[in-house]
Design a protein that fits this description.
flat, transmembrane helix, membrane, 2 strands, mainly alpha, LssY-like-C_dom
Amino acid sequence: MTSTRDDAANHRRFALQMQQPLPTSTIVDRVFFLVATAAAIWLSVIVAMQGFRTPWSLLLFVPVWGILAYLALPRLHKMLSDLYVPDYFFGRTRTPDGLLGDPVNMAVDGTFEQLDEVMTKAGWHRAEEITARST
């Protein structure tokens, strides 16, 4: 029993030693992201508290909503997913940006090319890329 505990402690110690420091660009990127997220949330709170009393508040609401919905929240979701969802977790799909997607209802063993060939022979076709036109 003691050797198992010692092995786990040694494994944790080795994993900590193997971690590489973050590049400066990643640290700067994260700092700017946190500042921008805090500013967007602060502005959205102000707009929510003030309401739509003036036309300017409606004009400010649109970019704040866009920043929160399409930049801040997806990025926050990705950062939290990277922290809390292990790489081997295969219960959900991932978008090209790395965000968690829909739950997986089936699993397929094979390469992309093999799967594409089999599905094409079965009469299926690949989904369109997500663009403004396809959306």
